[in-house]
User: Which sequence fits this backbone?
């Protein structure tokens, strides 16, 4: 986080890559826990505006999670995150089905999420970003109405 906080995004991305590589070796026998680290790496890379590198992390995380249990809510969260990374790269056609499936899967599993989970509102935020990027303003308004049902995003 120190590199990110100092706006040294390239150094931060390199540090994240080194960290994940070490964790992959350490956690080779525990893919569920490894996928958590890979997810966090993807999130950090998105914060550092390295969407292409984040895409790689989210794809790997999704592959692992689908292999463990394709119906677990974390799979759908990862689909949404991958879709968000694709939107950031203007890969809208590839992003849309991931975003919709991710949101739908999370919504279907809402009862499995903790009360303070931000997974669904964040998935909606990504759909709003997609709708804006795709110039689908009516759709964006619908997602904004859905988003209003949840607490505001933290800064």
Assistant:
């Amino acid at each position: 986080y120190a590199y990110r906080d100092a706006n040294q995004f390239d150094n931060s991305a390199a540090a994240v890559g080194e960290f994940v590589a070490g964790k992959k070796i350490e956690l080779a026998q525990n893919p569920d826990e490894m996928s958590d680290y890979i997810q966090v790496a993807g999130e950090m890379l998105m914060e550092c505006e390295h969407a292409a590198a984040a895409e790689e992390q989210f794809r790997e995380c999704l592959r692992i999670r689908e292999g463990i249990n394709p119906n677990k809510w974390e799979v759908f969260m990862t689909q949404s995150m991958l879709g968000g990374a694709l939107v950031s790269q203007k890969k809208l056609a590839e992003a849309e089905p991931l975003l919709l499936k991710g949101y739908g899967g999370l919504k279907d599993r809402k009862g499995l999420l903790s009360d303070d989970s931000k997974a669904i509102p964040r998935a909606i935020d990504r759909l709003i970003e997609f709708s804006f990027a795709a110039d689908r303003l009516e759709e964006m308004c619908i997602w904004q109405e859905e988003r209003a049902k949840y607490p505001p995003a933290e800064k």
